[in-house]
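README: folding subset

This subset contains proteins for which both the sequence and a predicted structure token string are available. Records are stored as plain text. Below is the entry for CBM2 domain-containing protein (207 residues), shown exactly as it appears on disk.
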Amino acid sequence: MHQKSGNEPIPPWFLMTLGVIALIGLAAISIVRLIPHDDGSDALPPPAPAFTLPATTAGPQAPVSLVPSPSPSPSLSLSPTETRSFESTAATPSRTTRPPARNVTGQYRVLESYGDSFIGEVLLTNTTGAPQSWRVTVVVPASVTGLRTSWLESLPQPRHSVSGRTHTWTSTVDLAARSTGQLRFHFEHDGGAVSPSSCTVDGASCR
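--- output ---
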């Protein structure tokens, strides 16, 4: 039987195995060094102690709420002159408007009639207890060809103006309270109608 001698060389695979084991050990040491260690430097600080109010000797106190209360909303302040009303603004039915009182009234009539002219009159009456001014407007028909003259019986004479067939007389002196005046006019005509197309005193129709 063949026996091994003490000087037999080490096989190559054994050396390779040792080298691999050594490399693995070095790699493990490097990995361990690269891993960060938790040394406690990044730990959060301990929580602050709970907030407590100093004790008082004035008796029991209502519990204090540390929750912030909402800020009060600004209120609308109005000065006395700016008081607003929130009542309904629905339009109320308007009242029937009464015609203004007639201070001076008029009544038309024909005093004299001739072949080619006539004399007419507007009787003025002040129905109030104070002197009143007045204005008479007479619109004559087309058959009336011209005005010869006009006058106010026993009273200061009015102003007269004409525009087409419209004649207007305006008082120069107020008619006394509860009195009358006779405004008369002498018109020419061609034989046709002598009644005026319109007669008003202060805008109100003559009677």
